[in-house]
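Researcher: Structure prediction, please.
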Amino acid sequence: MREKGHALSESKGISLIESLLIIVVIGLMVYLLAGIPNALGLITKSRHLSLAREIAVKQIEDKRAINYSNLVNDTTSISDSRLSLLSQGTGEVTVEDCDPAICTSGEYAKQVTVVVSWLDNNKAQNVTLKTMIGEGGVNQ
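Model: Predicted structure follows.
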């Protein structure tokens, strides 16, 4: 025979603590799933930034491979095919004489500035790299 008090403890149902745990787990899942689009956006932005830097570094390497006497002051567009992987990607390379405030002893040097620009979520982004190439420097 069963005791009368024992029948109440065997009742079926969900306790308050179990309900709260279910709510917490569902809330945590919603929080984690809500962050996925933001994480994907950051991954894309990082990938674009890395690609833009690679393009800019390649342009500087190409200019360093040119003999100093053949470096002409000008601004040219970058024609790297990888620019098409960036939304509205463009770029330019500017070669100019060293600023007299920097080259105070008459050094023969050129300043090379590379700018790669693109749109990321309709916001303008760019990477700018500058370097100096001197007569008798690397690969000269």
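Model: The chain has a mean pLDDT of 88.
Researcher: Thanks, that helps.
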